[in-house]
Amino acid sequence: MLKIDGIDIKDLPFEELQIQQEIVEFDGIPVFVHYTDKTNNDIVSYLVDFDANGHRRLFGKINKQELFDYLIGIKSLRTLFSEISSDFIFFVDYDKSENFVSAKLSSKYLIPEKYLPVEESHNDDGLSDFYLDYLKQNYYDYVMKLNSFIVKVESPDQVHGKTVGARETAIVLNHYSTSVEGYIDTKVTNVLRGDFIESRIKRRASKTKNFLSPRIADARPGNSIELWLAIDTPVFKNAEADKYDEKIKEGLIDDYKRDVLDVDYTSEEDAKIIAEKYTPEERKKIFEPIYRLLENNDFKISIYDTKNTIQKNKQGLKSNDKFWKTLLPPPSIEELQQEQEKKHRIVTVVLNLEEGQNITKLTKKSLQETLLFTQEGAETVYQIKDSIIVNGKEIVLKKPIKCVLVIDVNNYLQLYNERLGIGSDGHGDKFNEIVESVKTQFFDLVENLKEIEEKDYPRAQEIKQYI
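The structure corresponding to this sequence follows.
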């Protein structure tokens, strides 16, 4: 075996090494092995030499990101050792019976060329089930970055060198977040329309926007700043946990990139395509935040992603008035008049307050909690109590089912329980029929629960508290 440089030591400095996985083997011989020690450090070893008397292994401590990068093929085995983050590596000799013989402390810079794996020593097997669990945080971060869109913000002048202001960065983040949330609101509304009453759609859209609002997956400052914005669909699960979740998630990230980010903001043709696909209200929610950014001369913006699906704005965003006039036409006289009427309208608000309570000290949350109804409509709690009888079968309720009852100015009613996913609506003179419809829907939920295993029924625990 080769003579190597280093300091003789009595043993490895890692206590209680335990093999986690033999990642690479050849003819039953472990070539590349992953261990953990007593304090859960990640250690790897690589078979580098052998002769008639035994063999030699190269040991090094790595972090989980290095291990992850190797396993998904970003780093080769050669790079893993030649660029290892640890200050020291170790050469250990064993006899033919795997007994320890000797060890040397050395450096990555002293690894003989012969001992380094070949250049094309990438892992092609991907992540096993073991490593999907062991490196789940690294995998989550990786997926988030992979699906990110990258907003590069640059200063337009050299007054402060090439640094970017925190205020300007915050403006960019806020406007892109608003655009994404507008897109999510649009998709949720279109997915649920026809199957749910309007108030439920709005509530679900609000919850979904709050959860899927962009996260900063990475930020890389320098002469400019790169903001990696991701929509966290991998862990998205709505409170309802129903079939609509998958429809909402499906294509959400790629569609937003295609329809909103990979757009030529100088092309009337692109503007016409978008105008045909989205209503004026939807376009305003999605595109107006970007228009406001492009009007701002305090920064320059470029957009791209790791998958190279965004091509049109990699060199910087440009726009012209023709595009925006097609996409965001100015409001009509009637729309302006309606907006003015809204601003000058007097609205009666009825609150449920304790005697002597100071209304001037109410917080936004307190106002929401004490609001009974306004001039434009009323919303209250309606309880379904005691028992439910459908087709001669009776369900005795342990506790009342609390539903939301909404009444608008036209006496149109909506009655629903969002957590159970039941609800009905109709004109005020059909109130009893609306209540019976909701009762029947709950009855059907209970009947379904008898036929489906509880673990496969998303609302099982919610239903069981009533029966």
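The longest helix spans residues 166-192.
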